[in-house]
Amino acid sequence: MSSKPSGGEVATRGRRIGILLICCMSLFIVGIDNTIVNVALPSIGRDLHSSLSGLQWTVDAYTLVLASLLMLSGSTADRLGRRRVFQIGLTLFTLGSLLCSLAPSLTWLVLFRMMQAVGGSMLNPVAMSIIRNTFDDPRERAQAIGIWGAVIGVSMALGPLLGGLLVDTVGWPSIFWVNIPIGATAILLTALFVPESRAPRARRLDPVGQLLVLVTLASLTYGIIEGPRRGWLSPLILALFAVSAASLVALLAYEQRRPEPLIELRFFRSVPFSSATLIAVAAFVCLGGFLFLNTLYLQDVRHLSALQAGVDTLPMAGVTVLFSPMSGFIVGRFGARPSLVLGGLGLGIGGLILTGMTPSTPFGVLFVAYVVFGVGFGAVNAPITNTAVSGMPAAQAGVASAIASTSRQIGSSLGVAVVGAVAASALAGKGFGPGFAVATHTGWWIIAGAGAAVALLGLFSTAPFALATARRTAESFEETPYKAGSEVPAEL
Fold first, then answer.
1. What's the pLDDT score for residue 389?
2. pTM surpassing 0.85?
3. Which of 158, 172, 235, 379 has its CA 20 to 30 A from that of 276?
């Protein structure tokens, strides 16, 4: 006969639930910030007199900084203390949100978005470390990670609706107010309930590698966004692409000589890991491009209100929320291949349907495209980390999943940059209007192609020869290879 839990056990369980709630609050404000800002882009563009490239920077300034700092923030938290870094991240994100709502110009908005991103980089990876440190029992830890993962779906579905309502009733600055009470509450609760923790042996910092990552991504993205306006063959744009290429070469050469590099290049000997990195980039190129083009189309071409645009996009978000846990179940039962192939086909077909978009495309066609795209994205996100860590040593799983998470942000940033650039080139400075629908066609073809790449990489990365390369990579670390069923952090 089982005995009732003691008062101490109940208190411990309550403290763990409280810590999980705090961590989920941080994920919620970071997750909702992505979709809620996209809905507000047309209003921001009108009020701040922004060009298409300016709106691209509103999104990409955030994702670029976030992608560049995720791994650094995780290792810093291991070294200086996870609660301390988590609180700093919450403070920067909350303060950045307040300043974004007060931004007098686009330049200031972009700068404050970068401040948000510095704080955001300290939230999700550090919160995952806190959860792993708090929940000792593997089953409880798996349940906690499942709840943590569900929050991103809720925030994604709520973002367009809440953002549209706020933009239509109060104005675009109000979308940033959502983060302030949640962030302030999380700061207070963290101080009261989250214990400090550090890694027994933190990875050494790699400032040179960090700088090279930032230069590589920033110069590449700047060149892509500004190329249509300044000319693709202008000296500045060519110089930016040259700097990006040189920084990447220098990064690869430097990281090979580091005993504890920022990016462990030996991981890329594993075909599943390398493929998962490319899959993450391609899938989030699709998502970033979809949200950017679709929001501008619905509001600036179809002249829907922000709230109506949020409601019309809800099928995509709702289906994503529905299929994400189903995909996780499929991965656990049948492996990553079915979900990756389904995900790639959904993303590709959804983009393909929209390649013929016109100012009067029937909503029924849009609805089908949104649902198919949502199925694809819901299916593909779950197996990315599973593929990345397939065959990896258990001790290296956290670093591998962090690289996969960074790849997601890079993909989102590139998606906005690339599809925005081709749309801007097609518009040729004519501004928004009915012509924007036709100008998006190449962008939708890019999204369709990226979806096809996900499906092909899903087949390639799960073949027997690919899994064999993962086992050989694990052996190179002279540790026990990762086995199915081992606990792996769920980077989202």
1. 64
2. no
3. 158
